[in-house]
Design brief:
single chain; SH3 type barrels; 6-stranded antiparallel beta sheet; 6 helices; elongated; ribonuclease P RNA binding; Rof/RNase_P-like; tRNA processing
Length: 200
């Protein structure tokens, strides 16, 4: 009958299309069996390369003066609200800074906290001219702090060979700058030793 011939032709064509690596004799041999296992060939998808967003180079940042604070903005009074915000941030981070809190717990939180807005004092230094500098941290880089003092002077204080003290709600924390030479974003993942260390 014509229908059976059409069905046979369709099956042969379908199998040939489904199994392109098989010869006609092999396909006919497969047809004599009850079960036919079809092979599957998936087309390889070409992966599109993601374009990385290029940031500014260090030279471009310097030329654009992205991190420079204008002289008219270098006033201590302007940044006092930033300090108040920082104190609230630390209180929330330490769950209230209660008197019965263990000091090493507070110390651990402060070491990983963002220090922009904190008031710090240089308590020890290999360079005597740095000792006594007190002010609000405006910018923190890997190796230096930029601090605005009450005299409206912007000081660039290196972390190396300096010890900084930080006080909030009666808790005093000491930062050993030589062990603190990290970017603010890198500190959150670092484990600090809370034991005393010889720094200077």
């Amino acid at each position: 009958p014509q229908a059976s011939e059409e069905a046979k032709a369709f099956v042969n064509a379908f199998l040939k299309r489904s199994m392109p690596k098989k010869k006609d004799a092999a396909i006919q041999d497969i047809l004599t069996r009850k079960a036919v296992v079809l092979e599957h060939y998936s087309k390889k998808k070409t992966k599109q390369k993601r374009k990385k967003t290029k940031g500014f180079t260090a030279k471009q940042r310097r030329e654009m003066r992205l991190f420079e604070i204008e002289p008219e903005q270098q006033r201590y009074a302007i940044f006092l609200p930033l300090h108040e915000l920082w104190k609230q941030y630390i209180r929330d981070l330490c769950h209230g800074l209660k008197p019965d809190m263990q000091p090493h717990m507070v110390q651990g939180k402060l070491l990983k906290a963002d220090l922009h807005g904190a008031i710090v004092t240089v308590t020890k230094s290999k360079c005597p001219s740095y000792v006594g500098i007190t002010g609000i941290i405006l910018q923190e880089f890997k190796h230096v702090f930029k601090i605005i003092t009450k005299e409206d002077k912007l000081k660039v204080v290196p972390k190396l060979n300096n010890v900084f003290s930080l006080e909030i709600d009666g808790f005093i924390s000491y930062i050993y700058g030589s062990k603190f030479q990290l970017r603010a974003s890198e500190r959150s993942a670092k484990k600090f030793k809370l034991k005393g260390t010889i720094d200077l």
